[in-house]
From TrEMBL:
<dbReference type="GO" id="GO:0046872">
    <property type="term" value="F:metal ion binding"/>
</dbReference>
<feature type="active site" description="Charge relay system">
    <location>
        <position position="521"/>
    </location>
</feature>
<keyword id="KW-0378">Hydrolase</keyword>
<dbReference type="InterPro" id="IPR000209">
    <property type="entry name" value="Peptidase_S8/S53_dom"/>
</dbReference>
<feature type="domain" description="Peptidase S53">
    <location>
        <begin position="179"/>
        <end position="604"/>
    </location>
</feature>
<dbReference type="InterPro" id="IPR050819">
    <property type="entry name" value="Tripeptidyl-peptidase_I"/>
</dbReference>
<keyword id="KW-0645">Protease</keyword>
<feature type="active site" description="Charge relay system">
    <location>
        <position position="261"/>
    </location>
</feature>
<feature type="binding site">
    <location>
        <position position="584"/>
    </location>
    <ligand>
        <name>Ca(2+)</name>
    </ligand>
</feature>
<feature type="binding site">
    <location>
        <position position="563"/>
    </location>
    <ligand>
        <name>Ca(2+)</name>
    </ligand>
</feature>
<dbReference type="GO" id="GO:0008240">
    <property type="term" value="F:tripeptidyl-peptidase activity"/>
</dbReference>
<dbReference type="Pfam" id="PF09286">
    <property type="entry name" value="Pro-kuma_activ"/>
</dbReference>
<comment type="function">
    <text>Secreted tripeptidyl-peptidase which degrades proteins at acidic pHs and is involved in virulence.</text>
</comment>
<dbReference type="InterPro" id="IPR030400">
    <property type="entry name" value="Sedolisin_dom"/>
</dbReference>
<dbReference type="Pfam" id="PF00082">
    <property type="entry name" value="Peptidase_S8"/>
</dbReference>
<dbReference type="GO" id="GO:0006508">
    <property type="term" value="P:proteolysis"/>
</dbReference>
<dbReference type="GO" id="GO:0004252">
    <property type="term" value="F:serine-type endopeptidase activity"/>
</dbReference>
């Protein structure tokens, strides 16, 4: 071992993240509070909390603080070596490595200069401490993030968005079962055109991580074809941690997803300004969900994990500086097992906090079926590398119960009499559109890759109460508990997706070319746009935003176009979870009908 290694091991900053409100019974209490304001039958529906009320509810108790301070004193740590930070939610101490194993005898992982995140919480503190993070002190040389995280970030500049391009697009008029356009989405989902003004309290934001950006010329080309009134209009930039519009590198991997999201969200919600939540600078690639959430909630900043979250070396980052929009769309997915369970539990709680404040979070499920996004492989300890055996792999953040997870559908043409009559005696340049029936999204690409709507069950989060009846019905109707399939997933986990939308043939412009793209990341901003339009109507009527919509959606199946055909694939299976009547683990409850959804939400307080 070198002198430098010895120095590194002797200079470790140990952060104890403290929060009694994060233990299980308090989380359960928070869930009850969320149900009280999101259950459509509750007399307090829509009575959302302020950010300060949320902070007060989750603040650590004096019992937790005293327990940790007593534990440190018993371990011989003098007061001069620790302090409370992040508004009292964290106790941070500087300790030489020689003290590390005496404080945490069950921790045996080598540390070196690598950030560690898996120090077990001592038994005596389990009711009071949520996460323990050890990281090199400021003067310790840093190392790259662990390879598992690099595989999810740096190796894939687009951060694993749920999208795939396979053909050049067309500028001509093509029927909606062959090409998805803003007009097709309005027709299929009964989305009305917007008025000339939007409510000042309405807002829609799209999460875009570092390096990715939309191109002004691409937006204008798209709008010139489909929404001329939008030519020259731009997203509202909301930079976090040095987020910027990257116009230096114009390449499809960096522009495709952002172009798609804003082309469709702006077209469907105009004149509502759409916010670009641009997270991370050129020097900070990686998953940016946690850092976005920290910008919304200063009390989460101490829970960021430097081995996962891209944090500047000087530890200066936006902490509680941004206000979340009413609807947030996230088009990115990662396998759930890429992250420690305690890390995801803490991050999922941030989504619950946003829900308490009336914020709707819409996320794409991914396109790898029952396998981990993006490759569709399974998890098998006998095969540490990619495998088609073993357990299905749920995706994050779709597996969090406090987001609305969006799967994908494909259109199937159903001929009607108008089209038949046109073919017999054409009276116009183009035939009328046939009716469209949606089936579960499945796409076979030219390289033989199969993409299907990701769906399944979490290995970390249990099925939430609002979903329990629907999941039980699905098991009873479509999944034999004695089948081989049942041994490959967690039958008690949170099921996803919640809903679905068209995920094929989106006509868009990127890098000066018309292309056709596919994936659930195309579906997510469409659903987010629908939510924003419902918010517009409620706000104009003096009501609150829709907030966390899942309890209402599961209570009102009449809102949906039920998708009953198809299945997802993955893990070596051509058909895994089948679509079925009601909720299923491929398309959720089905696709939204705006008019029916609007009626339900306008009838609520």
């Amino acid at each position: 071992m070198t002198t430098a290694d010895n120095s590194t091991r002797a200079n470790i900053s140990i952060a104890l993240i403290i929060g009694l409100r994060l233990k299980q019974q308090s989380a359960v209490k928070a869930v009850r509070e969320l149900s009280r304001i999101t259950d459509p039958d509750s007399p307090t529906y829509g009575s959302y909390w302020t950010a300060s009320q949320v902070a007060q509810f989750f603040a650590p108790s004096s019992e937790s603080v005293n327990s940790v301070l007593s534990w440190l004193a018993a371990a011989g740590i003098p007061n001069s070596q620790f302090h409370r930070s992040h508004q009292g939610h964290e106790v941070r101490l500087l300790s030489p490595r020689s003290n590390l194993h005496s404080l945490f005898p069950s921790w045996s992982s080598p540390l070196g200069a690598q950030v560690a995140t898996s120090i077990p919480v001592p038994v005596g503190l389990k009711d009071h401490v949520d996460i323990i993070i050890a990281e090199p002190a400021a003067d310790t040389p840093s190392r790259p993030r662990p390879r598992a995280v690099l595989a999810a970030t740096d190796a894939h500049p687009t951060m694993m968005p749920s999208i795939r391009r396979d053909t050049e697009g067309s500028q001509g008029q093509i029927p909606c079962h062959q090409q998805t356009t803003p007009a097709c989405l309005r027709s299929v989902y009964h989305i009305p055109d917007s008025d000339n003004a939007s409510h000042p309290n309405n807002s829609l934001g799209i999460h875009i991580p570092s390096w990715l950006t939309w191109l002004p010329e691409d937006l204008d080309t798209f709008f010139g074809r489909f929404m001329p009134d939008l030519v020259g209009q731009r997203p509202v930039m909301a930079p976090i941690n040095g987020g910027y519009q990257n116009l230096d590198v114009k390449m499809e991997p960096f522009n495709l997803e952002a172009n798609l999201d804003f082309e469709y969200a702006m077209a469907l919600t105009h004149p509502l300004p759409v916010t670009n939540i641009q997270v991370g600078s050129h020097d900070l690639p990686g998953p940016q969900i946690g850092t976005m959430l920290a910008a919304f909630d200063r009390y989460y900043c101490g829970s960021l994990d430097p081995s996962i979250d891209p944090i500047p070396p000087d530890k200066t980052f936006d902490c509680g500086t941004a206000k979340p929009p009413s609807v947030i769309s996230i088009s990115f997915a990662w396998p759930e097992h890429y992250f420690p369970a305690e890390y995801l539990s803490r991050q999922c709680l941030e989504f619950l906090k946003l829900s308490l404040q009336g914020v709707t979070v819409v996320v794409a499920t991914g396109d790898a079926g029952v396998g981990g996004h993006p490759d569709g492989y399974c998890s098998d300890p006998r095969h540490p590398n990619t495998t088609t055996s073993g357990s299905f792999v749920p995706n994050w953040p779709a597996s969090c119960p406090w987001v609305t997870a969006v799967g994908g559908t494909s259109p199937r043409e159903d001929q009607d009499q108008a089209v038949v009559a046109w073919r017999n005696l054409p009276s116009a340049a183009h035939p009328p559109n046939n009716r469209i029936t949606e089936v579960a999204y499945r796409r076979l690409f030219l390289n033989k890759t199969i993409r299907t709507s990701s769906g399944g069950f979490s290995n970390i989060f249990p099925v939430p109460d609002y979903q329990a009846k629907a999941v039980h019905s699905y098991f009873a109707a479509a999944l034999d508990p004695n089948s081989a399939l049942s041994s490959r997933f967690n039958r008690t986990g949170r099921g996803y997706p919640d809903i679905a939308a068209l995920a094929t043939g989106y006509s868009m412009v990127t890098n000066g070319k018309w292309v056709s793209v596919h994936g659930t990341s195309a579906a997510a901003p469409v659903v987010a746009s629908i939510m924003a339009k419902v918010n517009e109507a409620r706000l104009r009527a003096g009501k609150t935003t829709v907030g966390f919509v899942n309890p209402v959606l599961y209570r009102h199946p009449e809102i949906f176009n039920d998708v009953v055909e198809g299945a997802n694939a993955g893990c070596g299976l051509d058909e895994a979870f089948p679509a079925a009547e009601g909720w299923d683990a491929v398309t959720g409850l089905g696709s939204l009908d705006f008019e029916r959804m609007l009626k339900v939400f306008m009838d609520l307080p």
